[in-house]
Amino acid sequence: MPPMKLKQSPSPQTLATSQDARLLARETLRISANLASSPAPSAVASSPEARNVGIVDEQFVDASLRLICCEEINGRRWNYVVDNEGGNGRGRNGSLRAVCSQNPQAPVDEMMSFIRSYVVPEGFPDSVTPSYVPYMTWRALKHFFGGAMGVFTTQTLLNSVGVSRNRSAPGAVAINWILKDGAGRVGKMLFARQGKKFDYDLKQLRLAGDLLMELGAGVELATAAVPHLFLPLACAANVAKNVAAVTSTSTRTPIYKAFAKGENIGDVTAKGECVGNIADLLGTGLSIMISKRNPSLVTTFALLSCGYVFSSYQEVKSVVLHTLNRARFSVAIDSFLKTGRVPSLQEGNMKENIFSFPWLEDKPIVLGSRFKDAFQDAGSYLSIEPLFEVYSF
């Protein structure tokens, strides 16, 4: 008969040891669950994100607070935390609190943010092409000189028409001014016949319009020398300036479209016009202060015109268009024939001739020789005439 193994009863010391082990395991699981349900204080406090958003260490030192979610409103970030009920880490019935996770901006930063919201598109600089900044810089400078010029031309026109010296009756002054504006509107309608040239020759038209704007300003200033010719000179000047306004308005959208990277053409246009208006107001204010010292009109016009034309030229040259017109196509063909490569988009736009005005008659593109140079007599042509019929030359 095999020996029987008798089961010994556990001693009190063994029972105590096993109970402690089970209690220790249970407490370990409970602590692990609490740590898993709440963020680790050291990780939150030491992470770069926590330092950037301004989370302080005391908010998550213990397990009494649990992070629920984060929210961003008007550029400020908020953390929603809940008080854990009874320290069990669940926090289902705890009180919810909103904690701002961003330090308040300095007054200077708030002011810069306010200015940026008016002068640059949302998402700048990623929302526009790199050529946007130089274009807007030269555009602002051009509007600054234009606003300064407007003060002197308006003052000269009023003096010439007789408002300041009471040489004319109010009715005659009003009639002359209305006729001047009416002539400008007629010129605006006549120049609209350029059609598609506003799309593919917009650089040339924009520069030509700015030159006409300065020409009109010069004619307006000339009325001070011959005030008895106010009406014809003012009408001619207003025609030139309204033609320039047509070119500026018509070429505005294609230029801004070249800068926009997404569906933000409206935003780019609005901010661009805002920058132009700000520069115009600054130029107007400066010229008002200068005009009180009665400077020389010739010297003032020369300086302001040089600044205006130079800024306009640089503004147009900074535009990078993604399409081909006659001028850019000529640059590409010439570069390919000379170097064997096609120029880049930036290079092609920089080498484009913007002084070839669209209203001038373009020379026809000649491919091959003329008939009289190719055939010396009729017999040589008649011998190969069937080839022209076969290949439909």
From TrEMBL:
Kindly name one Pfam family recorded for this protein. Answer: RUS6_N
Q: Which residue ranges does the record assign to the Protein root UVB sensitive/RUS domain?
A: 110-339
User: What highest taxon heads this organism's lineage?
Assistant: Eukaryota
Sorted alphabetically, which InterPro entries does this protein's record hold? RUS6_N, RUS_fam, UVB_sens_RUS_dom
Domain Protein root UVB sensitive 6 N-terminal spans what residues? Answer: 16-105
Record-stated family: Belongs to the RUS1 family.
Entries under PANTHER family matching the protein: PROTEIN ROOT UVB SENSITIVE 6 (PTHR12770:SF20), RUS1 FAMILY PROTEIN C16ORF58 (PTHR12770)
Name of the protein described by the UniProt record? Protein root UVB sensitive 6
Annotated organism of origin: Vitis rotundifolia
